[in-house]
Amino acid sequence: MLAFKEDFFLELGKLDQDNIHFLAESFDHLPPNPYLDGGFRLRRYSHFRYTNGHLSRLPTKTFVQSSEINRFQGDVERQYEEIEDNIVQSIAFNEMFDKFKAMAHVDDEADIEVHQIRIIASPGKPTPVAPEGVHQDGFDRIGIFVIDREHISGGELQIYENRDSAPIMQYAFDHGEFVVLNDRRFYHGAAEITATEEGDAHMDVFVLTANVNRLVEVNS
């Protein structure tokens, strides 16, 4: 029989330790960001299909969100450099897709968009992790993979039932910990970060987004 997938809420997990270390190094090679958040967020962006354990890169495209979804940088077409080939071809990168697809029930034909983001913190000056505030990304499913937190305080990911409610979950994810959630059902945000010492202070995150078919076959 067929059933709706909307009974999926959220699921937590953690990546393999060796894979976390490999992915963490790749954030040191993120290019400058020419957009409104470029002073504190670096980014690469690509999109893929993941079918039978095989990852296929799709053609480069611009990224845009409506101002109804993104109140900070909506209706702006943004062009980012692609995620590096050596990362895309790695076992570590593929593990994220394995876990995201299995947990979120993503179909083989679904496009999966991936943002690789470093948020840079400064001493004594709180930096927004999510400058758009409490929000949804406009997809069915979202996966937030926190690869590394270096010399920062704050940055707890927050999950909300609606934009104006108190968070139902707040946790400082780190070292490959992640959450996959129903983006139609929940809102999310994050606490600001502050550097705890001079020098390199940052939070490194992969964000995966996808839409899914509304129906799935289940045993009756």
Topology:
Elements: E1 2-4, E2 10-14, H1 17-26, E3 41-51, E4 54-57, H2 85-88, H3 91-104, E5 112-120, E6 141-150, E7 152-154, E8 157-160, E9 169-171, E10 177-182, E11 187-190, E12 193-195, E13 202-210, E14 215-217
Antiparallel strand pairs: 1-14, 2-10, 3-4, 3-5, 5-13, 6-10, 6-13, 7-12, 8-9, 8-11
Helix pairs in contact: 1-3
Number of strands: 14
What's the main sheet like? 7 strands, antiparallel
CATH topology: Jelly Rolls
Shape: globular
Structural class: mainly beta
Mean pLDDT: 88
What is the radius of gyration?
17 Å
Strand/helix succession? EEHEEHHEEEEEEEEEE
The percent range for strand residues is 35-45%
Domain module tally: 1
Helix content: 10-25%
Count of alpha/pi helices: 3
- What is the CATH H-level superfamily? q2cbj1_9rhob like domain
CATH architecture: Sandwich
What is the straight-line distance between the termini?
6 Å
CATH class equals Mainly Beta
Biggest sheet: strands side by side, in what order? 2-10-6-13-5-3-4
Task: Summarize this entry quickly.
The chain has helices at residues 17-26, 85-88, 91-104, and strands at residues 2-4, 10-14, 41-51, 54-57, 112-120, 141-150, 152-154, 157-160, 169-171, 177-182, 187-190, 193-195, 202-210, 215-217. The protein has 220 residues and is mainly beta. It has a single domain, classed as Jelly Rolls (Sandwich), CATH 2.60.120.620.
